[in-house]
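pls design
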């Protein structure tokens, strides 16, 4: 049975709402051999965008393979390099013999090679018989181009949670070597492979690609725009009508405003409303659904607030009160922020904890819309 409101997995095709321009832009970049980065808050649609871009390219007849490399649990450079090489080989090899042959050919003379023992034990493909050096890392970073030339078609390597590269012992070295690989690409290389860098820690990713410009002019950012309210309302109404249910447009407008058009939250919220109703959806149903949704996420929100110092909590409250001139005497005194130097430290702390984004070009923004609602109404007791 098809899900009416999908929020537990990425979506493509008819279930992909809005952002078709961004999907086309990403597909065009990759088709031209350009590297791309997409960094947005968790559950904002990054993976759906990637998959829709791949869907578009596949529909256009482009021959390619996708290699997904998760950095979610990566904490060492060795593990990162071995995983990258392993996933690239896995994208076009299906048996131990094929893996051994491809690794022997493409990584010949390298410290890294196919490991039958690891493969038999836990399914890992590559191992290293000595310390991995810079030349070995470069061999693996160039592996997509060589593998694509060997197999035909293209290879797109998509890193997820790429900001975790900086949790390794030398993330700067990895980025520096990858930058050199990009700078030394030939025209043929651009027709063979491209890298995509995805991350949900917005401020950490912005530090890599925006502030420090570690891949300057080698990686293009695709920024997700807000999905239009009209598209979201049409999507909800169309989906509810399949089960014979109706909701007032004003209630949907309020829902979009509350969740700042975050389609993941809205789909989850609408699914709860759908399960609680039989016909016309009333306001009390939305209130009950909101309570249910908050109950799911509240432990995470409480943990976030418990992780903040008293000064950081005060800074967050000042942000929610709409202040922007945090170093003014009035704001420092009202929220007991101590000093202008302390304000700078507090901004850095809230940014590093990925709670607030100060790089929006306007007022600072609390990234998670439901967390913002919860902290306003439940934690600080403010009125909306």
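designed seq:
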């Amino acid at each position: 049975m098809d899900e009416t409101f999908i929020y537990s997995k990425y979506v493509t095709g008819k279930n992909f709402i809005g952002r078709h321009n961004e999907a086309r832009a990403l597909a065009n970049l990759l088709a031209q051999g350009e590297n791309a980065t997409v960094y947005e808050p968790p559950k904002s649609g990054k993976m759906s965008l990637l998959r829709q871009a791949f869907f578009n390219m596949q529909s256009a007849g482009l021959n390619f393979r996708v290699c997904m490399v998760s950095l979610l649990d990566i904490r060492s450079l060795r593990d990162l390099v071995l995983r990258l090489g392993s996933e690239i080989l896995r994208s076009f090899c299906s048996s131990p013999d094929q893996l051994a042959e491809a690794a022997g050919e493409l990584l010949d003379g390298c410290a890294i090679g196919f490991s039958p023992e690891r493969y038999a034990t836990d399914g890992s493909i590559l191992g290293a018989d000595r310390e991995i050096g810079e030349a070995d890392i470069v061999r693996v970073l160039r592996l997509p181009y060589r593998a694509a030339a060997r197999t035909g078609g293209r290879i797109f390597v998509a890193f997820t949670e790429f900001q975790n590269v900086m949790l390794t012992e030398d993330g700067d070295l990895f980025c520096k070597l990858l930058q050199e690989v990009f700078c030394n690409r030939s025209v043929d290389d651009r027709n063979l492979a491209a890298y995509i860098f995805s991350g949900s820690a917005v401020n950490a990713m912005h530090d890599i690609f925006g502030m420090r410009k570690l891949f300057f002019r080698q990686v293009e950012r695709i920024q997700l725009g807000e999905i239009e309210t009209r598209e979201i309302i049409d999507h909800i109404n169309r989906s509810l009508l399949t089960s014979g249910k109706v909701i007032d447009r004003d209630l949907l407008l309020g829902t979009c405003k509350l969740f700042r058009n975050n389609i993941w939250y809205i789909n989850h919220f609408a699914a709860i409303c759908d399960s609680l109703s039989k016909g016309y959806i009333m306001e009390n149903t939305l209130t009950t659904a909101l309570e249910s949704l908050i109950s799911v996420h509240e432990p995470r929100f409480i943990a976030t607030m418990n992780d903040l110092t008293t000064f950081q909590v005060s800074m967050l409250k000042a942000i929610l009160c709409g202040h922007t001139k945090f170093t003014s005497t009035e704001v420092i005194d009202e929220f007991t922020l101590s000093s202008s130097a302390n304000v700078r430290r507090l901004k850095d702390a809230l940014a590093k904890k990925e709670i607030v984004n100060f790089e929006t070009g306007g007022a600072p923004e609390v990234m998670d819309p439901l967390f913002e609602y919860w902290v306003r109404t439940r934690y600080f007791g403010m009125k909306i």
